[in-house]
Amino acid sequence: MLTNNENTKSQIKSRQRVAQHGEVFTNPREVNAMLDLVRDESYRLDSRFLEPACGDGNFLIEILRRKLSLLSSIKSQTEWEFKSLIAVGSCYGIELLEDNAESCRERLYGEVMGQMGKMGRMGGYEESLRYMLRKNIVCGDALTYRTADNRPITFCEWTPIAGSKQFARRDFQFDFLVNQAHQYSLFDEQGEAQSFDEPVRSYPPLHYTQLYKCDN
After folding, report:
1. pTM for this predicted structure
2. Radius of gyration of the chain measured on its C-alpha atoms
3. How many CB atoms are located within 10 Å of the residue 153 CB?
4. Which of helix, strand or coil describes residue 16?
5. Contact 34, 18 (CB under 8 A)
6. Do residues 82 and 165 lie in contact, with contact meaning Cβ atoms separated by under 8 Å?
7. Average pLDDT rounded to a whole number, residues 177-183
């Protein structure tokens, strides 16, 4: 479902965009009513959400706000930053139009930085935040599983490593995630051998301030 800025009452940008792309935005009131149907999950820091037609991000920004609200009592700068990236890393979006996708990234970035307030920040945090948003908010078509430049849509799985301030990253193709059943054991209920799902690529763990160096 596409969305627009909370301060804008219109549900369309232009009639041309409606005709060409079916672009109709969802109001924040409806967004929150729908999220309340899965309230517990929307307030769980690491629960993953995918919006397959995210527009400029009203669903994702409300999910992120709920997750970030869990960090309000944290005083440690590094702890807040690390957990904020857990929240961001759990929010995924696909959007057909690049201007909407970029607006979504900027809104999520602005929400995090705004909630951080006057708290200082570690070097590399902002770069890692923007990198994560570029990877998680993809310009493409959820129906064809392809990006705007006709590559397979690939999403990063960001897994925080217990007892550290590091993330492990694995990349999966979107069409694989949609079309394949995940296997969590070597054998099924009939004792037949099963294969595990394999990522496209795995990366060594990195400190949260170094995530933007993943592709280097």
Report:
1. 0.81
2. 18
3. 22
4. helix
5. no
6. yes
7. 64
